Amino acid sequence: MTQTFRLPEGGLIDRERSLGFRFDGSSYRGFSGDSLASALLANGVHFIGRSFKYHRPRGIFAAGYEEPNALVQLGEDPRTDPNQLATLVDLVDGLAARSQNRWPSLDYDIGALNNLASRAFPSGFYYKTFMWPAAMWMKYEHFIRHAAGMGQSPRERDPDRYDKTQAHCDVLVVGAGPAGLSAALAAARAGARVVLAEQDHLLGGALLGQVGDTIDGAPALEWARAAEAELRALPEVRVLERTTAYGYFDHNFLTLIEKVTDHLVRKPDHLPRHRLWKLRAKQVVLATGSIERPLVFRDNDRPGIMLAGACRTYVNRYAVKPGTTAVVFTNNDSAYGAALDLHGAGVEIAAIVDLRREVIGPMSELAEAAGLPILADHAIVATEGGRRLKRLRAAPMDASGEQVYGSGEPIDCDLLAVSGGWNPTLHLHSQAKGEIVWNDELGCFVPGKASQAALSAGACNGDFGLASCLAEGAAAGQKAAAAAGFKAKGRKKATPKATDHGFLPARWLWLVPSDTPLGHGGKHFHELQNDVTAADLKLALREGYRSIEHVKRYTTTGMGTDQGKTSNVNAIGIVAEATGRAVPDVGVTTFRPPFTPVTFGVFAGRDVDALLDPVRRTPMHGWHQRAGALFEDVGQWRRAWYYPKNGEDLDAAVKREVREVRRSLGIMDASTLGKIDIQGSDASELLNRIYTNAWKKLEVGKCRYGLMLGEDGMVMDDGVTARLGEHHYLMTTTTGNAAPVLAHLEEYIQTEWPELDVYCTSVTEQFATISIAGPNARRLLAELTGDIELSPNAFPHMAVREGTVAGVAARVFRVSFTGESAYEINLPASFGLAVWQAIMTAGEKYGITPYGTEAMHVLRAEKGFIIVGQETDGSINPIDLGMDWIVSKKKDFVGKRSLTRSDMAKPDRKQLVGILTDDPETVLPEGAHLVERLEPQPPMTMLGHVSSSYYSPNVGRSIALALVKGGHAKKGQKLTAPLLDGRTIGCTIVDPVFFDTEGDRLRG
Amino acid sequence: MLLIPCPYCGERDETEFSYGGEAHIERPKDPEKLSDAEWADYVFMRPNSKGILLERWVHSHGCRRWFNLARDTVTYKIHAVYRMGEKPPRVPKTDYV
């Protein structure tokens, strides 16, 4: 098919560059500069999709971001995008688009039966029908999703790259229509750093779709081109086209999405597909224009029914005739411009149907002069046509505007251009928490007081004339620049001269009457995308909904991907009228970001895969890898989990590792432990206030285990801290809590105890930590150090010594998390690997066994040592853990007072106990619940849960730790663990220490 | 996203900071002398004021220093910033309902 509806000349298209594209399998041609919508219209294609609920044929309704109907699926998996607006898609050679929401095809759609059965689909239909029984919902949902789906999301991983960038400017101008260009010029001329963002790829805004307007005597677009050229030449101005400011957040922080390569056939490798701009502006000028409001009349949704302003755009910008014979239906003056432009393009104007009782104004005079037939005080009462409008009827109205006389005269036409007035685009102003006020004269909501440093200018401020836009834009640009510290220098440039054409006078009729009652024999759609009618709104009101927010949710009006850009104000008007309230009393629903849909990919940007979160590796990481270790994530750290040998699984490897540690010697990489260097004359005092136990009498060269609580008395962290000098300590924390503990210390030092002379420094990454444990640990260490005396008397358990290990300066802590005699060797990180290898070589004769975190967990559980975050969950205090021996009665410390609150003395607090299963080979799953009395089925009274559970080859059976209500007093009691798989496991509460209860091995 | 004027580093994005709740709630000097209710009031209870609130922030991804803001919890406008230990500035009264 050739472009039958393309005008022979004109338009902002490049006729030298003909582009081929496909829609629903058919091939068409368009021109560079076309949108997908304009190219389809040039080929006479109006029917482009079916509606969401009733599957009624729908056509292209608008020409911009407000389009509710023309949603298409672009491209093929994995590069496919659902719900793309045909009006915003730039035509590129080879573009492939499909219609949505039809099955099996657009022409033969089974769901269209919904339209015939539409009485069965009132508002709240889903709530009413699918409420009960709940189990059936899963079945209903399958069919609902299939029938009412929008587009399809890609099934495969997104192959494109996205980017994010930060930016700052003095003045951000949103929208490059006459007001925005004018504002950007004024601000830039004053010297401000300006960003001008425009969602279109051409600057000019409404001027792009209009002809005949002049600025300073020349065509208005020439002024726009000159403005653009001046802005682009200024070094402090950045013009972002194809960029939508979609979110306006606190303190003038805005988010913008730039579509960088969607319009390119060859996409350069160095460019991202979309770019997210995170922009902080000192001042913002909103010049976002306005959206035309449709009229709500019977069967107002057929393909061929379009907004009047959109018709103008198609004629003037794209040189496309949207029809052959047109009727214009309006309540205001602006649609006369559309009538005249259509007429000028050779479209026959069958009638201008005007709701106003009298037609007056300069525009209607022009129409009359052009000989266009005007039917004043008439309403369109019906339309006909399946896949395209064929005919309509217009009838005279009574004085109230609530009724029509007769059924009206039929008028044949294939295009109906509709205008119900204009709504300022308030979205960003409102997102920024600006007030919204109703303007009775203009019949629309306009911006009230802004709550951030923002000014609205032009049509989005309710000033619709071209001269007003230019003047207001210039004033806003100047004011914004001045507020950002840039005063206009030299002689002020005169505001360019233009003429104002507003759309007043108008007659506000929210609901256009028909010759049949509302809801009978036709539908008055106010919301096209979600198929919501005026009758649905009235039903919601009859059913008792009053708040517009509730009416919205019940009827789903304004809840589509277009967020009701063309429908919300009509819905509010209809609700106001039906409830006898004034429009401002009904109020608006909340505007939320994004203004138009944003691709998920851009939020992820480059923060995917390895770049999602930093990975921290210890200095010995490569050695663990070569040794075949499997790793587990502990916070950002990758820790060696276990080292399988000869095809061992986890169980087999861990059994071997824990046996070898107790039999001879094990080695573990403990570098991830948090390490905080604490210095100052009040270092002891700080520890004394932070930890539950006493610290002032700890000798230099000794270590102590400490518990740290929150002020609520709950365990926050634990670890060993060593006194390296009179005023010098090294604190260790759990791997995951290194940063929170440092923050905790700093908070108290800076906010509660600023008088303390103490400083904390994180040294986690400065030291590598190698832990050697087992009966042969001391013998091995003796071979590697000459200057540290290792006899139990000279270097007892819980002592620290400095010296050399394998020739490297080291701090050696004799501490144990395994219950074996053990040493933690701390070295400068860069020597970690070398010393590890030296130890491995020297340890060969002892069969030294590297063990991972899993074996460490088993070893410590055998001893009943807790892991913070596993045996504790933020609701467990030291007494619950049976660790009252570490809680000082004498001194104050953070959290102490909370331990004597009445709640803490309750006998049914969950307490740490050991658990032994009746069958020694059965290992309880961690997280299993424990009950005293087994019921045939849930619910049962739960006493607690298993926090740690392993098979211990050293004890020769399974062992577990659990938190059980009143557990300390229940030693010896039988419990049962009912499992998800139906098994029930009998077990007994015991003491939580399973191995070497006297601790002889530790001190040996 | 708030733009927070750190008294040591200047204006920075909110993502660099951590919130520390209401300011000028001093840890009791002798907690053991307090009743359970008084202690619970210190640990748990905050008025959650609507209007200008004196609150603590820490520049955790910057200088790591604590400071105070006077911030309107309705408009999020920051009226004043001052260092730990400094007297709170005079701020306008708010009369939100």
Which terms summarize this structure?
A: 1004 residues, alpha+beta, Ubiquitin-like (UB roll), FAD/NAD(P)-binding domain, 6 domains, six-stranded mixed β-sheet, elongated, B: 97 residues, mainly beta, Folate-binding fold, two-stranded antiparallel sheet, 6 strands
Poorly predicted regions of chain B are none
Strand line-up in the sheet with most strands of chain B: 3-4-5-6
Strand content of chain A: 25-35%
CATH architecture of the largest domain in chain A: 2-Layer Sandwich
Q: Of all protein chain pairs, which has the greatest interface, and how many residues does each chain bring to it?
A: A-B, 23 and 29 residues
Number of helices of chain B: 1
Q: Based on the coordinates given, report the CATH architecture of chain B.
A: 2-Layer Sandwich
Full CATH superfamily name of chain B:
Folate-binding superfamily
Largest sheet of chain A: 7 strands, mixed
What distance lies between the first and last C-alpha atoms of chain B, to the nearest angstrom? 25 Å
Structural domain count of chain A: 6
Number of domains of chain B: 1
Mean pLDDT of chain A: 94
Report Rg of chain B: 15 Å
CATH class of the largest domain in chain A: Alpha Beta
Global shape of chain B: globular
Task: State which percent range the strand residues of chain B make up.
Answer: 25-35%
- Based on CA atoms alone, the radius of gyration of chain A comes out at 38 Å
Structural class of chain B, please? mainly beta
